[in-house]
From TrEMBL:
GO molecular function: O-methyltransferase activity
One family name in Pfam for this protein: Methyltransf_2
Name the record gives this protein: O-methyltransferase C-terminal domain-containing protein
PANTHER family associated with the record: O-METHYLTRANSFERASE
UniProtKB keywords: Methyltransferase, S-adenosyl-L-methionine, Transferase
Domain O-methyltransferase C-terminal: from-to ranges: 15-210
Keyword Zinc-finger: no
Length: 234
């Protein structure tokens, strides 16, 4: 079954109008299920939908991986961590092309730490703390899951973890005025998240003490927009 067709997601559309209220700060999904989307996924009896979601994210990563590998500047990088990296397919791809780089993935797992295919997986929550000491940090398809205040919190934790010469790569779509709105509705329903214009990325970066130093066009687009690597530094 497709993730989007699972009843847990589909039923949330009934609360979409209510989620647009200015006095309400909850997504349609949270109004329907009485807890945020990612909390819902972590319940033992919701493993099926978590698997669907993880597989959807891994599939998206597999499609875009070859474009990221072509354009992401990793010369001189010896350590790399993918924040919210899920099953680790992107980090494993980095390791395959750059075997000298120490590759780690941080996400919410049911274990503390483990290794697989040369990649170290670390349990953690990017709203609490992000491990320090890496040359390169990566946030791929994460910030679009969150409204500005929480996106800024994630970036602030990246700022705290980064050394003065570390780099953060935000891999995401940059919205254009004529882009379709369907994916924004999808993110709104689940998380109150959304795609951002370049100026909006500049805003959340600045609020976290970071600056955008470069933007790399991946020359890869979907029906929802064009994909970029947004380079940020302290």
């Amino acid at each position: 079954m497709k993730f989007e067709l699972d009843p847990a997601f589909w039923n949330a559309w009934s609360q979409y109008s209510a989620s647009l209220s200015k006095v309400n700060e909850k997504s349609a999904f949270e109004l329907t299920h009485h807890e945020p989307f990612f909390y819902y996924l972590n319940h033992e009896n919701n493993k099926n939908i978590k698997t669907l979601f993880d597989n959807l994210m891994a599939k998206k990563t597999d499609v875009i991986n070859k474009y990221i590998i072509e354009y992401i500047p990793l010369n001189g990088i010896s350590s790399f961590i993918d924040i919210g990296g899920g099953l680790g397919s992107f980090a494993k791809n980095i390791k395959m092309h750059y075997p000298h780089i120490q590759c780690h993935v941080m996400d919410q797992y049911d274990f503390t730490k483990k290794e697989s295919e040369g990649v170290t997986f670390i349990n953690g929550n990017f709203f609490t703390a992000i491990p320090s000491g890496y040359d390169a940090y990566c946030i791929k398809n994460v910030l679009d899951d969150w409204p500005d205040n929480q996106a800024i919190d994630i970036l602030k934790n990246c700022h705290k973890a980064m050394q003065k010469d570390s780099v953060l790569y935000v891999i995401d779509m940059i919205k254009e005025p004529n882009d379709a709105a369907s994916f924004d509705l999808y993110m709104d329903t689940l998380l109150l998240g959304r795609k951002r214009y370049k100026s909006e990325f500049e805003f959340v970066a600045k609020q976290a003490g970071l600056s955008i130093t470069n933007i790399y066009n991946l020359n890869f687009s979907t029906e929802n927009g064009s994909n970029y690597i947004i380079e940020m530094k302290k």
